[in-house]
């Protein structure tokens, strides 16, 4: 009887210790979860307070300079009725032609830019410039992939936004599914709207955005953007083309 009474505490120590151990780990887990939530909240707050890094132009490099010399004002982007402008090639008039000579220029420029990229690893401006050359050669899937590689990593590149928007709009024109085509145009509109107004690509972005808004049936917005464009440019041939495209003379 006494032996049974004396052994009783020994049989209850283990469950109590196990319970304390489990409670300890549970507290640690909760504390870890709270710490993780706080860290994510801080990251989110910082991302809101600190805007994406704005990049424009091209790096100062001998091969980049040579590439610009090859294609600037000579390599005309086939953007259909849309406007396109880049630090690499300048701006193309509507309906620009692209033949064997332009293809060779684009290939030579791409080789120079690839060589420069070995010295400027991670520079998004070179990725954008290479995407422009893909767009010129109608490699739309690859161009879109290159543009997104920049825009999706927290870098604000107006040229990448403009180039991606033009790429999406061209893909929409070739799309047989009306719903898919509309989705592509809406995404293109969003890219044009995201172009920084301080950048030189803002006029082409406003121009293209107004055209596409009208195409998707959002005429009041298209006219508002057209007036925003006119506040910057009301006398150039581009301004006249935009008014004509939206039929504002009859409004």
Number of helices: 10
Strand order of the largest sheet: 1-4
Number of strands: 4
Q: What Rg, in angstroms, do the CA atoms define?
A: 29 Å
Helix share, percent: 55-70%
Distance between the termini: 107 Å
How big a fraction of the residues is strand? under 5%
Unreliable parts: 1-7, 42-49
Q: What's the story with the biggest beta sheet? A: 2 strands, parallel
Give the overall silhouette. Answer: globular
Please state the structural category: mainly alpha
What is the H-and-E element order? HEHEEHHHEHHHHH
Note the main attributes of this structure.
10 helices, single chain, mainly alpha, 4 strands, 251 residues, two-stranded parallel ribbon, disordered N terminus, two-stranded antiparallel ribbon
Structural commentary:
This protein is mostly helical. The chain is 67% helix and 3% strand. It contains ten helices and four strands. Strands 1-4 form a two-stranded parallel ribbon. The chain has a two-stranded antiparallel ribbon with strand order 2-3. A hairpin with a 3-residue loop joins strand 2 (85-86) and strand 3.
List strands and helices in order, with pairings.
Layout lengths: L1 H48 L3 E2 L7 H10 L13 E2 L3 E2 L8 H18 L6 H13 L3 H12 L3 E2 L1 H16 L4 H16 L8 H14 L3 H12 L6 H9 L6
Parallel strand pairs: 1-4
Antiparallel strand pairs: 2-3
Helix pairs in contact: 2-3, 3-4, 4-5, 4-6, 5-6, 6-7, 6-8, 7-8, 8-9
In short:
The chain has helices at residues 2-49, 62-71, 100-117, 124-136, 140-151, 158-173, 178-193, 202-215, 219-230, 237-245, and strands at 53-54, 85-86, 90-91, 155-156. By secondary structure, it is mainly alpha-helical.
């Amino acid at each position: 009887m006494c032996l049974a009474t004396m052994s009783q505490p020994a049989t209850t120590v283990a469950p109590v210790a196990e319970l304390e151990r489990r409670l300890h780990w549970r507290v640690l887990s909760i504390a870890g979860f709270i710490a993780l939530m706080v860290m994510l909240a801080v990251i989110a707050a910082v991302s809101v307070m600190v805007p994406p890094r704005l990049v424009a132009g091209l790096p100062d490099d001998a091969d980049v300079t040579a590439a610009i010399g090859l294609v600037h004002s000579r390599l005309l982007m086939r953007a259909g009725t849309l406007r396109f402008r880049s630090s690499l090639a300048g701006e193309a008039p509507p309906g620009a032609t692209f033949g064997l000579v332009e293809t060779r220029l684009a290939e030579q420029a791409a080789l120079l830019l690839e060589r420069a990229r070995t010295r400027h690893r991670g520079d998004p401006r070179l990725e954008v410039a290479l995407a422009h050359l893909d767009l010129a050669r109608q490699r739309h899937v690859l161009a879109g992939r290159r543009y997104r590689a920049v825009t999706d990593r927290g870098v604000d590149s107006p040229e990448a936004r403009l180039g991606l928007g033009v790429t999406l709009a061209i893909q929409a024109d070739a799309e047989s599914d009306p719903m898919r085509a509309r989705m592509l145009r809406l995404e293109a509109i969003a890219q044009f709207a995201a172009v920084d107004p301080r950048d030189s690509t803002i006029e082409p972005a406003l121009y293209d955005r107004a055209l596409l808004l009208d195409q998707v049936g959002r005429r009041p917005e298209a006219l508002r953007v057209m007036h925003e464009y006119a506040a910057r440019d009301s006398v150039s041939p581009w301004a006249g083309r935009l008014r004509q495209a939206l039929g504002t003379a009859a409004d």
